[in-house]
């Protein structure tokens, strides 16, 4: 059963509820024009309990992530991959004015983790965070619109290497989120969109755990946050 964008199953209502909250970011982004300085906080503000507990919805994310009955796993994963890409792009865009060549000369995650981009020739390139994010999201967008990878036609089949490509997408999305937490969580607090970021990241990690889409070594830079959010 192909057609990853046509799914309207039992988890769709809850997903739509979350998506509506995430979509508020297009309006909240306007707030940053009035922000001069984010609050003065310690090195990992995202671990402070009064910020950590801020969420946008009280939804059982484990149930939301679980494969619905009578739906193929690849179709469910494809549907959610598209949704996560759209929502992470929204939140990244909302914070993009804070992520510049000057503020973020390297693509970094927590623990001084530096992410390098691998080009089509296999060369590893050190680049700024905004450039890395642009590379990553553009690459994912190209995959998602490729009918040979994410088919939308009824009866179309997913390719043999589908899960490998999905894991690569989730790795790039994780790194995008990791940089936002490392470098721009104060900005998210100042814009009052940290509840959206917290909920989105919790949902994302819950889904990756459910379908084993990321290696523990890749998520290690945010293990302290993941543990706190999933308790």
SSE layout and pairings?
Elements: H1 12-23, H2 25-28, H3 49-52, H4 61-65, H5 73-94, E1 108-109, E2 113-114, E3 117-118, E4 124-125, H6 129-144, H7 162-191, H8 194-211, H9 216-219, H10 223-230
Antiparallel strand pairs: 1-2, 3-4
Helix pairs in contact: 5-7, 5-8, 6-7, 7-8
Under CATH, the topology can be stated as Butyryl-CoA Dehydrogenase, subunit A, domain 3
The count of domains is 1
Structural class: mainly alpha
Task: List low-pLDDT spans.
Answer: 5-11, 26-41
Instruction: Provide the CATH architecture.
Output: Up-down Bundle
Helix content: 40-55%
Strand residue percentage? under 5%
Question: How much is the average pLDDT?
Answer: 85
Oligomeric composition of the shown chains: single chain
Number of helices: 10
The radius of gyration over CA amounts to 17 Å
Strand/helix succession? HHHHHEEEEHHHHH
Largest sheet: 2 strands, antiparallel
Describe it.
This protein is globular. A two-stranded antiparallel sheet has the order 1-2. It is mainly alpha-helical and 231 residues long. The relative contact order is 0.20. It has helices spanning 12-23, 25-28, 49-52, 61-65, 73-94, 129-144, 162-191, 194-211, 216-219, 223-230; strands at residues 108-109, 113-114, 117-118, 124-125. α6 (129-144) crosses α7 (162-191) and α7 (162-191) runs antiparallel to α8. It contains ten helices and four strands, in the order αααααββββααααα. It has a single domain, classed as MOB kinase activator (Butyryl-CoA Dehydrogenase, subunit A, domain 3, Up-down Bundle). β3 and β4 form a beta hairpin.
């Amino acid at each position: 059963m192909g057609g990853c964008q046509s799914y309207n199953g039992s988890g769709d209502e809850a997903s739509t509820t979350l998506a509506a909250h995430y979509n508020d970011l297009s309006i909240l982004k306007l707030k940053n024009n009035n922000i001069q300085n984010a609050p003065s906080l310690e090195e990992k503000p995202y671990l402070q309990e009064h910020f950590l507990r801020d969420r946008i919805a009280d939804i059982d994310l484990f149930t939301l992530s679980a494969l619905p009955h009578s739906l193929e796993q690849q179709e469910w994963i494809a549907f959610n991959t598209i949704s996560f890409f759209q929502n992470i792009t929204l939140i990244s865009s909302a914070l993009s004015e804070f992520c510049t060549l000057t503020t973020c000369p390297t693509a970094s995650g927590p623990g001084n983790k530096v992410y390098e981009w691998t080009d089509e020739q296999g060369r590893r390139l050190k680049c700024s965070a905004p450039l890395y994010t642009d590379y990553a999201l553009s690459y994912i967008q190209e995959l998602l619109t490729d009918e040979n990878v994410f088919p939308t036609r009824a009866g179309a089949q997913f390719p043999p290497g589908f899960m490998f490509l999905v894991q690569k997408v989730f790795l790039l999305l994780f790194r995008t989120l990791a940089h936002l937490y490392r470098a721009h969580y104060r900005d998210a607090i100042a814009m009052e969109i940290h509840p959206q970021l917290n909920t989105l990241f919790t949902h994302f990690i819950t889904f990756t755990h459910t379908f084993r889409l990321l290696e523990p070594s890749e998520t290690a830079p945010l293990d302290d946050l993941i543990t706190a959010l999933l308790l």
